[in-house]
Amino acid sequence: MVIEITGLPPTEINEKDLEHLVGRVFFKSIDLLGGLNKLTEFRTLTWLPSLARSAYVIVLREEYLKTEEEIAEKVGLTKNTVRNILRADPTLAMEKIKKMEELAKEEVKELRVHTAGGIAKLAYKMVKEGSDAETLIHYCSITATEVAQALEVPWAYTVLKHIKGIKYPIQDTTELKERLKGVKIKNYSAEEVLDKVHYPIRMPAQLLHEIKLAISGMNS
């Protein structure tokens, strides 16, 4: 009996989901390099197209199981370039990032394929683990605060105001309790509510949702 292996079935691409995830990986890649200010300081803003292309390549392979040929056609790269990005070593890229000044001197005009691929791979892994770029989290925090104000939810606005600038993901109650010390949430002390929240917390909106669930449980 002969068993024919035909490979994985093609995965449909939802273009909006693709753009969203590629954007998150792209911004996380910039974060890993120290942010736009650092790139400006080293006059390496020309690296951005390489990071964007690598983010597309990694997401298309990891999320949609696309072949090198399919990725090359969609992104507009050669098959060889796609292969080099997919073979890039994220550990080596991390070592280069730690020596940013040397990296900037070595790759003055354009980030090399292997370097960009390694950074995008690392960024993809971190995003999937819930560690988004600080830029996106800051924007989400501003949006959540505006929504809390518009909906007249005083406790949500107070929580977001006190935790402004906190680093995500939040792994436990320690810093939250310190920042919300003395704050009341629906007649409960913040410390009491935070003990009933599930961690890690990856976004401001998730924190508000968890607090809401905790309060509901305490009221029942």
Question: Overview of this structure, please?
Answer:
There is one protein chain. This protein has 220 residues and is mainly α. The protein is built from 13 helices and two strands; from the N terminus they run αααααααααααββαα. The protein has a two-stranded antiparallel sheet. A hairpin with a 2-residue loop joins strand 1 and strand 2. Helix 6 crosses helix 8. The longest helix has 18 residues. The radius of gyration is 21 Å and the shape is elongated. About 2% of the residues have low confidence.
Outline the fold blueprint.
Layout: H1 15-32, H2 36-41, H3 48-64, H4 68-75, H5 79-86, H6 90-98, H7 100-106, H8 113-128, H9 134-150, H10 154-162, H11 174-179, E1 184-185, E2 188-189, H12 190-194, H13 204-219
Antiparallel strand pairs: 1-2
Helix pairs in contact: 1-3, 1-8, 3-4, 3-8, 4-5, 5-8, 6-8, 9-10
Annotation keywords:
mainly alpha; elongated; 220 residues; 2 strands; 13 helices
- In percent, how helical is the residue content? 55-70%
In the sheet with the most strands, the strands line up as: 1-2
Cα-atom Rg, whole angstroms? 21 Å
Mean model confidence by pLDDT? 87
- C-alpha termini separation: 62 Å
Class per helix and strand makeup: mainly alpha
Brief description of this entry?
The protein is mainly alpha-helical and 220 residues long. Helix content is 65%, strand content 2%.
